[in-house]
Structure to design on (792 residues):
C-alpha cells in the first residue's frame, strides 16, 4: 500500500471533482458579504457580461408599467465592474435585522447568486437569501441553544383517500420525555406546501429560540399540506419534478377543512400529546388563515387558540361545501365556547387589509373578543415570520 | 363582508406577490423538458444575453487547459436563440436513465436554471437536476410506494463534547411497529455532511423503493456528520450561512472514528433497534469509506456488514491517533471474527482505483473474503447511488 499524504488525497480530490467548480466557471469570491457597519456587499465574477443588476427585498420598490397597469415592483440596483471582471454593489445604508432575499440579473436574466448556496423556493421561483442578525432577526438564526427535531413523514388521510406528506417539529427533549405536549397546527398559503413554513417561515429556528428563551412553551408544530388535491410538495410525490405553479394544486373547496380531523387523529395517535382543546392551536397565513378560520368554527370544540395571519377572509358560500355555509351561526357557536385566543394579524399595505377590517367589525359588533396585531407592509413572508414569533409565545 | 370570488382573490394574490415573478423577470417557459424519445430540451429566456451555453454531466467531457495542466472538464453545449429571445438546446441523443445535473452559462457565468426549482448542493456549488426515469434510475424517483420518515435531529457526543446534527431514515411502518430494526450507518465524503446522502444520494427514495420491491429489508439508515470539528451542515449550525469549502471542516485525524460509538449509543437508546453485530452495517463513500474501514476494524465486534464505496484507502500512520496504528493487526482481528460482508466498490476511472486494487491485493494475500463490485467512471455521485442500491439489498 503506497503511502499517500493527506495533502495528495486532497489534491487528487480537488482535481477529480471540486476542480470542476474551481477551474471551470467556479468563483472564488464572497457574496453576499455582511460588513461590520451592517451594509451588505454583493459580488459576481462576470467578465463577459454586459450588464449586471441586483433585485432584492431590501431595495426600495419602484413603480413599473406592467400589463396590469402601474405596479410596485421590487427595486433594482446596478453593479459596477472592476478590472478583474468582478461586479460589485454595496447597499448605501445599513440594513435592518431581517432575512432578506435577492437575485442577480445577468444581461436581463434573473438568477440566484452562484456564490451563495443558501436559497429558498417560494412557489415556482428560487431566490438567494441571507440574514442580517440583531433584534427579532436573531430568532431566525441557528443559535447555540437546544434544537428540536424536524421530521418529514407520511400519513394516511381516509377522508381524502390519500397518503400525504407532513412536516413535524418536535421540541428539544421531546424524545427523551415521557410528558405530553401541546400541539400547534401551522398552515401555509396558496402556492405553498408542507415545506413552506420550515423554509420560508424559519419555524424550527423561531421555536428553538423562543423555547430556549422561555418565551414559548415546548410544543409540537405540525405543518400539513393544505392543498387537498396534493400528496406532497413539488418533487416529493409521484408527480415528480414538475414546474410548480401558483394555483396549480390550490382548491379552497372545503375538502381540506373537512379532512382536517384526519391530521389531528394521526398526530394524537403517533405523538405523546395533550388531547384537549386547551392544548391545540391552529394558525395559518393567507389561504392558511382562511383554513384556520373555517376549521376552527367548523369544529368549535377543537381549538382554544386560533391565529389568522394576513388571512384570506372571503365568503365561499357560492361553493357547495357545507364548510362554508352558515358562517355567522358557526362563529356564534365558536365564540360561545370562549376560545382563549382569537388572533388577527395583518399588514396595513396588505391587499386583504380591508377584508380583515370588515371581519374585525363583524367580531366587534358581536362582541367576540380577539387580539389584533398590525404591522406595516403587505402580503409577505417578513410579516408571517413576525406573526409566528408574536403568536407562539401566547400559546398554552 | 364583501363578496370576493375566488378568482379575484387569485388575481389579487398574483398582483401582490407572484406578479413579481410573472411580470418582472419571471419566465413562463418549461426547462428542462424530457421529451418522449428521452432527449431533453433546455430553455432560457434571455433576449439580451450575448451567449448562452449549458454544461452538464450528460455531455461528453472535453479536454481543457487549466492551471493544473490538461484535464477532463465537463462538456459544454451552445444554445440557439429564437426570435422571442428564448435560447434552446436539445440533446442530440436519448439520455440513459440517471439523475443528471447541469448549469447554464450566461455570458460566461455558471448559474442554475431559473425555470427549474430542483437543485442540489455539492459542497459549495449548487446545480440544477432532473431524473431520466427507467432502469435503475426509477429507484431514485418518488414512486407510489409506502414512504419512510426522514428526521433531522441533534444528539450529544460526549467524546467530541459537542451537540451534533444527524439525519435518520426510518422505514415505512417503523413508528407503528413494536418490532426491532437493523441499522445501517451511511457516511459521506470529504466536503459533505449529514445532508449529502439524502440530497445527492437519494437515500430515502432508494430505500423506499428497494423495501417496497422486497429487495431490501426494512432498516434504519443513520447519516451522521463525518467532520469531527463540525456540528452540522453549513447553514444549520451557529456558524450561520458561510460559504462552504471543500476541506473546510474535514480533518481525518481519528477523532470521528473514535467518537463513533457515541452515535451508536444515541441510536440504540432512541430507536427500537436490534443491538448486535448481525444487525449493524457501516458504509461510506470516499472519506466515508476510509471512516468505515477504520471504524469497523477499530471496533471489530460492532459490524457484520462493511461497505467501502470509492474509499480513500490511505495510510494515516503519520497521524498520532491510535485509530490509524497497527492496521494489519486490526484487520486480522476483524476478519478472524468473520464479518458476513466486506464489500468494496469502485469505478475504473476513479483516482483511488489503484489504492483500492492494492488494498484488495492485501486482502487476497491474507485470504480475507470480500465482495468486489466494479463500475466504469470515477469519483462521482452516479457511482455512489449505484453502490448504495447494490449494497442495501445484501444487508441483514
Amino acid at each position: 500500500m503506497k503511502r499517500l499524504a493527506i495533502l495528495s488525497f486532497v489534491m487528487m480530490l480537488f482535481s477529480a471533482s471540486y476542480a470542476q467548480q474551481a477551474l471551470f466557471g467556479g468563483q472564488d469570491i464572497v457574496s453576499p458579504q455582511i460588513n461590520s457597519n451592517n451594509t451588505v456587499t454583493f459580488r459576481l465574477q462576470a467578465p463577459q457580461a454586459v450588464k449586471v443588476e441586483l433585485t432584492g427585498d431590501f431595495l426600495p420598490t419602484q413603480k413599473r408599467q406592467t400589463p396590469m397597469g402601474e405596479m410596485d415592483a421590487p427595486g433594482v440596483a446596478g453593479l459596477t465592474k472592476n478590472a478583474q471582471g468582478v461586479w460589485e454593489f454595496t447597499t448605501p445604508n445599513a440594513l435592518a435585522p431581517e432575512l432578506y432575499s435577492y437575485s442577480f440579473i445577468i444581461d436581463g436574466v434573473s438568477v440566484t447568486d452562484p456564490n451563495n448556496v443558501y436559497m429558498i423556493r417560494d412557489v415556482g421561483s428560487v431566490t438567494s437569501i441571507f440574514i442580517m442578525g440583531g433584534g427579532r432577526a436573531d430568532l431566525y438564526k441557528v443559535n447555540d441553544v437546544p434544537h428540536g427535531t424536524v421530521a418529514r413523514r407520511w400519513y394516511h388521510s381516509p377522508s381524502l383517500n390519500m397518503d400525504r406528506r407532513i412536516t413535524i417539529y418536535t421540541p428539544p427533549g421531546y424524545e427523551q420525555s415521557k410528558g405530553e405536549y401541546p400541539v400547534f397546527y401551522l398552515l401555509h398559503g396558496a402556492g405553498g406546501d408542507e415545506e413552506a413554513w420550515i423554509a420560508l417561515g424559519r419555524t424550527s429556528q423561531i421555536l428553538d429560540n423562543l423555547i430556549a428563551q422561555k418565551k414559548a412553551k415546548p410544543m409540537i408544530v405540525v405543518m400539513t399540506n393544505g392543498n387537498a388535491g396534493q400528496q406532497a410538495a413539488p418533487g416529493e410525490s409521484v408527480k415528480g419534478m414538475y414546474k410548480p405553479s401558483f394555483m396549480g394544486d390550490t382548491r379552497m373547496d372545503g375538502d381540506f377543512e373537512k379532512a382536517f380531523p384526519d391530521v389531528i387523529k394521526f398526530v394524537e395517535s403517533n405523538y405523546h400529546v395533550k388531547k384537549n382543546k386547551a392544548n391545540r392551536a391552529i394558525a395559518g397565513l393567507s389561504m392558511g388563515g382562511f383554513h384556520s378560520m373555517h376549521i376552527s368554527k367548523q369544529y368549535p370544540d377543537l381549538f382554544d387558540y386560533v391565529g389568522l395571519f394576513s388571512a384570506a377572509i372571503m365568503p365561499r358560500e357560492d361553493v357547495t361545501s357545507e364548510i362554508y355555509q352558515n358562517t355567522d351561526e358557526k362563529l356564534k357557536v365558536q365564540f360561545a365556547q370562549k376560545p382563549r385566543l382569537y388572533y388577527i394579524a395583518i399588514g396595513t399595505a396588505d391587499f386583504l387589509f380591508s377584508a380583515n377590517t370588515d371581519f374585525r367589525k363583524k367580531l366587534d359588533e358581536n362582541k367576540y373578543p380577539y387580539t389584533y396585531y398590525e404591522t406595516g407592509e403587505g402580503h409577505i413572508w417578513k410579516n408571517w415570520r413576525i406573526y409566528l414569533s408574536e403568536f407562539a409565545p401566547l400559546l398554552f
